Amino acid sequence: MTDPTPLNVARPDDERAALLVWMHGTLRPEYGERPLTPRREPLHELISTILSQRTTHADEEAAYRELRTLGDWDAIIAAPVEAVAHAIRRSNYPESKAPRIQATLAALRDSPGGYDLDHLRDLPVKDALKFLTDLPGVGIKTASLVLLFNYARPVFPVDTHVHRVTTRVGAIPRMGEQAAHRALLKLLPPDPAFLYELHVNLLRHGQRVCSWHDPKCGVCVLRSRCDAYAQYGDGVPAWKA
Ligand code: SF4
Description:
Order of helices and strands: HHHHHHHHHHHH
CATH architecture of the largest domain: Orthogonal Bundle
Shape: globular
Protein name: Endonuclease III
Number of helices: 12
Cofactor: [4Fe-4S] cluster
CATH class of the largest domain: Mainly Alpha
Domain HhH-GPD: 51-208
InterPro entries: DNA_glycosylase (IPR011257), Endonuclease3_FeS-loop_motif (IPR003651), HhH-GPD_domain (IPR003265), HhH_base_excis_C (IPR023170)
Helix content: 55-70%
Pfam families: HhH-GPD
Bound molecules: iron/sulfur cluster
Strand content: under 5%
């Protein structure tokens, strides 16, 4: 006999869109309302997001602080790449991030707006994303973070926690992080405040409950509608990206 209740992931787009709205409303009492206010200036956000890849928040901040001791952005571009790598050594993979940061800054310096990113506020979202992802060290996650956090543009950054939770629940099928940006954005309302709060609260949930290894399904508020829990019960397997 076939199961009369399909998994979320097999449901049509409108039902998975409604599932994401339910997740937003269910996570809010757990982690609170998250007003959308920029946490740092745009170029700081951009460079810090590059530094944050596979790095703790404390180490990312320490790396950024020491990077800025090299001088202004022009000075960082002109510095020997080894000096930049040394300055950001608290971030993982400093040898690969240092030339990316210098190349990104140089491309911005030579662009019509220079280091000022405020023109992104008025560009169509598609063009703003293209401007940022055309920069040498900037991917879709970094671009989305800057556009949503700093300019309240309706995009949805997908980090490893957001990707894991939304996939396990079944809001999207299994796919890479890059593709998940497009798949989730297609389902979500174009409301920056909603997108910001959902992003931040999914991140919290991924850090505290739906961890990559040994998720705490027994205390999870999403359990009643989670595909992974429906399939595996308390034995949800470790996440493999
Ligand atoms: S029920 Fe388990 S797998 Fe599903 S979202 Fe919660 S912690 Fe993650």
